[in-house]
Write a structure and sequence with these properties.
29 strands, Pectinesterase_cat, 15% helix, aspartyl esterase, globular, 6 helices, signal, Pectinesterase, Pectate Lyase C-like, single chain, 364 residues, binds 2-acetamido-2-deoxy-beta-D-glucopyranose
């Protein structure tokens, strides 16, 4: 997607006789700026409050930090209040710095607000919690059911989003088999997002990894049933996937309907632990694609490993692979015959950020 600034400008200049001159100027500016803004760097996940204070004293407000503090000493007492302060079609990174606290609220970042960072205080991830408790069967004022997608405690629809140092929770506890218990903690629908040291907690459908390319690095995801699901192309590296399943469940339900879709969930160097038993993945759509490489898999994974979601035809088309995993749950002796032990050549496209075209939008 193009830089928002230039997109807004193009809307403004439609029908204008001066548009040629001005749009050229704007595009030139946007491209130069685009190089800086259309990537995610470590800098985007850090806040330097001292520099911010100095800048403000010198009359600048360039570091664009909005402080969320429940004590009232910041710019907002809620996370949503801070998101609301970000201008529409924002074209520079804005950092929302969240001080420790339990924020009982739903947070929504619309697609008109790209380049937002949610940043918790370093090493205080456990104490900085955004939590809500909607589930799919809850009804709205008009009597309609909320549905899975809108149950999310935190929903991000904008591009170039990143988050670090926070916990995102849906506190609904799912009863297996109950109707409408899907309760999403985080939904990420925007393209090109990074999550670093973020904890995502729920039971059923915890993380809706909906659309776009995403990088989850050193994150913790907890749940029991399909707790990472959606249609994205995502790399999960050095993450902990923690099962809270009692009798059955599944980690990944990746949705892919055709061979042409360049999507999939790749788990590299992750640890899978918790209570059992869970499938590594369930085929949502004929071409569901999930790969685990270099993972430590504890005995919480069902020996057969993978489920065709009661659609035997999917056994021929789903792409479920394991490469160089270890631990009791990694034993492939009793795996379904149609899952694959990948060779290095087969695993290679999924092993690093090139899988998510990270060379184009990550500078880490
Ligand atoms: C600095 O910029 C942020 C984001 O644009 C804004 O919310 C904040 O109020 C500004 N602070 C000052 C002191 O102008
Ligand atoms: C956070 O934890 C790491 C590892 O334990 C440590 O190296 C770092 O100094 C800590 N940072 C702060 C701000 O305390
Ligand atoms: C796996 O992750 C650990 C830290 O969690 C790191 O030290 C190690 O280098 C990683 N190995 C690979 C193959 O990426």
């Amino acid at each position: 997607m193009a830089v928002m600034g230039s997109w807004v400008f193009r809307l403004l200049v439609i029908g204008s006789a001066f548009s040629v001159f001005w749009s050229e100027v704007e595009v030139g500016y946007a491209e130069g700026e685009g190089n800086l803004v259309d990537v995610i760097t470590w800098e985007d996940m850090k806040v330097d409050l001292r520099k911010q204070r100095q800048d403000l004293k010198d009359g600048y407000n360039t570091s664009r930090v909005i402080v969320v503090d429940q004590s009232g000493k910041g710019d907002s007492v809620t996370v949503q209040g801070a998101v609301d302060m970000v201008p529409m079609y924002n074209s520079d990174r804005v950092k929302i710095y969240i001080l420790p606290g339990i924020y009982r609220e739903k947070v929504f970042v619309p697609d008109s607000k790209p380049y937002i960072s949610l940043i918790g205080v370093e090493n205080q991830t456990l104490e900085t919690i955004i939590t809500w408790n909607d589930k799919a069967s809850n009804t709205e004022k008009d009597g309609r059911e909320l549905g899975t997608s809108r149950s999310a405690s935190v929903a991000i629809e904008s591009d170039f989003f990143c988050a670090t140092g926070i916990t995102i929770e849906n506190s609904v506890v799912t009863v297996p088999g109950a109707h409408g218990n899907q309760a999403v903690a985080l939904r990420i629908t925007g393209n090109k997002a990074m999550f670093y040291r973020v904890r995502i907690l729920g039971t059923q459908d915890t993380l809706l990894d909906d659309y776009g390319s995403h990088y989850f690095y050193q994150c913790y995801v907890q749940g029991s049933i399909d707790f990472i699901f959606g249609s994205s192309r995502s790399l999960y590296q050095e993450c902990v996937l923690h099962s809270t399943a009692e009798s059955y469940g599944a980690i990944a339900a990746h949705h892919r309907d055709t061979q042409e879709e360049d999507t999939g969930f790749s788990f590299v160097n992750c640890t899978i632990d918790g209570t059992g038993m869970v499938y590594l993945g369930r085929a949502w759509g004929d071409y569901s694609r999930v790969i685990y490489s270099y993972c430590v898999i504890h005995s919480v994974v069902t020996p057969s490993g993978w489920s065709d979601w009661n659609e035997p035809s999917r056994q021929k088309t789903a792409v479920f692979g394991e490469f160089q995993c270890r631990g009791k749950g990694a034993d492939r002796k009793n795996r379904v015959a149609w899952s694959k032990s990948f060779s290095y050549e087969e695993a290679r496209p999924f092993l690093d950020v090139t899988f998510i075209s990270g060379e184009q939008w990550l500078r880490l």
